[in-house]
Amino acid sequence: MTTGAAVAPGRGSGVAAVAACDTITLVDISAKTDYAIRALAMLAEVQTTGGGALSAETLAARQDLPRKFLEAILADLRRGGIVVSTRGAYGGYALARDAGDISLGAVFRVVSGPLAEVRGVRPQDVRYEGAAAHLPTVWVAVRASLRRVLDEVSLADLVAGDLPDHVRHLADDPDAWANR
């Protein structure tokens, strides 16, 4: 997906970017972020049905995820207050709060850090001279666009397929699905 997102490559960010001469050419959602949201979607689904905790093994098997990597992600999510863990024969992981109160943006930030950075610096802190003086405004707008989608979609929205109208509108544009 081509965009002007400003994210430093190789910094463990949930949205990684490839920079060429300080121009950002790609936004890529990391496996860590994808796996986290897929596992949390399952926990949200279980929460809506009144089910209990799910083991890392069950989550990994149902979503075809590498178990050891998922266990590390779940530990990050536990430390970040997104999930709680229970030990024992019926133990496993459950959401720490209602699925409607957990945004995808919150998950991104817990497992991968800020949504957008420019060479490791927050977009509002970047300064350029001359012809590129207004570029930080574009980077801030890109971050705002990411926030508008990720912070306004909850795990409950995702599981129910009840996405906000503005998110559906973006995805309904046939051009959104085309590679450039």
Write a short abstract of this structure.
The chain has 7 helices and 4 strands; from the N terminus they run ββαααββαααα. With 180 residues, the protein is an alpha+beta fold. The longest helix is centred in the first third of the chain and has 18 residues, at 31-48.
Secondary structure topology:
Layout: E1 15-20, E2 23-29, H1 31-48, H2 56-63, H3 67-79, E3 83-86, E4 92-95, H4 104-112, H5 135-150, H6 155-160, H7 165-172
Antiparallel strand pairs: 1-2, 3-4
Helix pairs in contact: 1-3, 1-4, 2-3, 4-5
Question: Which key phrases capture this entry?
Answer:
alpha+beta; Arc Repressor Mutant, subunit A; two-stranded antiparallel ribbon; two-stranded antiparallel sheet; 4 strands; globular; disordered N terminus; DNA-binding; WH-like_DNA-bd_sf
Helical amount among residues, as a percent range? 40-55%
How much is the radius of gyration in Å?
Answer: 18 Å
Derived from helix and strand composition plus strand pairing, the structural class reads alpha+beta
Q: Assign an overall shape.
A: globular
> In the CATH hierarchy, what is the superfamily?
Winged helix-like DNA-binding domain superfamily/Winged helix DNA-binding domain
Organism: Nostocoides vanveenii
InterPro entries: TR_Rrf2-type_CS (IPR030489), Tscrpt_reg_Rrf2 (IPR000944), WH-like_DNA-bd_sf (IPR036388), WH_DNA-bd_sf (IPR036390)
Keywords: DNA-binding
Protein name: RrF2 family transcriptional regulator
